[in-house]
């Protein structure tokens, strides 16, 4: 009995297995006949009328028609796969177009050789670029970024010397120091090196960003300009250089004292909203027989110096200690106004450093001795660049105006000062962005091939 049951179960299992194999064959392996193409709408109507007469009563006809339709279990999958393939094709096409446009847009490669501290203001403060390594004492530092149609790379440090680094672009920006004679000698060596590369066709174009002389005695660079038979296409120069023409010579901002490692300052909520302890500040050198002596005398009148953070010294000090630098930053952060008397030139680092901390510059608006400015052409000199950009500063012609300025300052409430700080910080951010874009546009306009026939 048990043997019979065992045989019956085995037979049923075998039958089930055979049926499963047949079902699998039917569904997955049997060749599928492609569906007949459907005729146009009007042909289908005509065929339906003709078949109705041949097939009999409506009920039977409907049943047969349904039964005769070729059921395709893969039809939905095929449609989905076709749609997915079309989407992949369109996505790939978009990616190719984007890559092609990206290559077309990145049509200029510029290498910046930073051989003056002002190059750090260009790269880190105006371009917002980073450098590796971060150590400011490193012998070699570099960075890169894409902007507009241009890919920029930046090199700086004592190890960057002529002939001992890779020239990786056909277009070069040289950042040089021409403030004094010893610096001019070094700058001249770099210019001659660049000239050799141009003559050997290793590079095509050269622009110079120059920390100019504070009295604008920059005649030494004129022979290198292309307009005078040289090879330098563009010159960006600090201070109110009389030869600025907005064609191939442009005024460039002095910026912050990057040689003292003045940082890129990110505005904060407290910087904008907190009340500040001091009405004004001045930390600097008092030169003999200068307007700075007048400033100090005025501050001592009526105890105004008690309302401000004042730290005067008799001799300029190029090096900062950690303590003195922190005091200076704290003075900017905790003062509503920063007093900016003229030095050798009207423009000074203090102006831009005050902007970084939202402390409004009060600027002695007088032309200093030398060859700066061209009053017949630029009526807003000195500080032509800042005034053109609508700098929201307080300009005074004489420090005798300061008591009235401070008296007005006392009457301002915190909300009014907050709005003023906001305006100043926004202006400074926009100023740097505008200088960046102008720099890029000027290079691209000069270096890229002209489309004109």
UniProtKB/TrEMBL annotation:
RXYLT1 N-terminal domain ranges (all copies): 110-253
RXYLT1 C-terminal domain span: 259-448
Residue numbers spanned by region Disordered: 33-62
Compositionally biased tracts (Basic and acidic residues): 33-56
InterPro entries in alphabetical order: RXYLT1-like, RXYLT1_C, RXYLT1_N
GO molecular function: ribitol beta-1,4-xylosyltransferase activity
GO terms classed as biological process: protein O-linked glycosylation via mannose
Any one GO cellular component localisation term in the record: Golgi apparatus
The entry's keywords: Transferase
Pfam family, one: RXYLT1_N
Designated name of the protein: RXLT1 xylosyltransferase
Taxon lineage: Eukaryota, Metazoa, Chordata, Craniata, Vertebrata
């Amino acid at each position: 009995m048990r043997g019979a049951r065992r045989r019956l179960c085995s037979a049923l299992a075998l039958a089930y297995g055979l049926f499963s194999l047949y079902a699998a064959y039917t569904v997955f392996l049997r060749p599928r006949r492609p569906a007949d193409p459907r005729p146009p709408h009007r042909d289908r109507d005509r065929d339906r009328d003709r078949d109705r007469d041949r097939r009999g009563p409506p009920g039977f006809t409907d049943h047969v028609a349904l039964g005769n339709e070729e059921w395709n279990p893969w039809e939905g999958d095929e449609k989905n796969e076709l749609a997915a393939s079309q989407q992949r094709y369109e996505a790939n096409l978009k990616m190719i177009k984007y890559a092609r446009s990206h290559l077309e847009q990145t049509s200029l490669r510029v290498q910046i050789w930073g051989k003056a501290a002002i190059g750090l203001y260009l790269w880190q403060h105006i371009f917002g670029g980073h450098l590796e390594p971060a150590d400011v004492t490193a012998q070699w530092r570099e960075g890169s970024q894409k902007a507009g149609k241009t890919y920029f790379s930046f090199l700086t440090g004592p190890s960057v010397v002529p002939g001992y680094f890779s020239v990786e672009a056909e277009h070069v920006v040289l950042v040089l120091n021409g403030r004094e004679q010893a610096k001019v000698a070094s700058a001249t060596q770099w210019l001659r090196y660049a000239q050799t590369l141009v003559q050997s066709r290793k590079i095509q174009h050269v622009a110079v960003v120059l920390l100019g002389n504070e009295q604008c005695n920059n005649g030494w660079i004129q022979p290198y300009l292309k307009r005078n038979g040289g090879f330098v296409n563009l010159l960006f120069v600090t201070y109110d250089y009389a030869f600025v023409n907005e064609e191939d010579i442009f005024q460039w901002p002095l910026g912050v004292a990057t040689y003292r490692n003045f940082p890129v300052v990110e505005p904060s909520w407290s910087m904008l909203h907190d009340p500040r302890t001091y009405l004004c500040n001045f930390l600097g050198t008092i030169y003999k027989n200068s307007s700075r002596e007048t400033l100090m005398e005025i501050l001592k009148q009526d105890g105004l110096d008690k309302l401000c953070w004042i730290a005067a010294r008799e001799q300029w000090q190029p090096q900062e200690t950690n303590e003195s630098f922190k005091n200076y930053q704290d003075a900017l952060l905790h003062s509503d106004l920063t007093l900016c008397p003229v030095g050798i030139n009207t423009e000074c680092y203090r102006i831009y450093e005050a902007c970084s901390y939202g402390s409004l510059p009060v600027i002695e608006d007088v032309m200093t001795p030398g060859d700066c400015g061209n009053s017949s052409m630029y009526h807003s000199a000195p500080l032509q660049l800042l005034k053109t950009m609508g700098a929201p500063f307080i300009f005074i012609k004489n420090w005798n105006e300061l008591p009235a300025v401070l008296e007005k300052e006392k009457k301002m409430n915190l909300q009014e000062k907050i709005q003023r700080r906001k305006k100043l910080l926004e202006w400074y951010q926009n100023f740097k962005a505008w200088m960046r874009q102008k720099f890029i546009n000027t290079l691209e306009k000069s270096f890229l091939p002209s489309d004109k026939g």
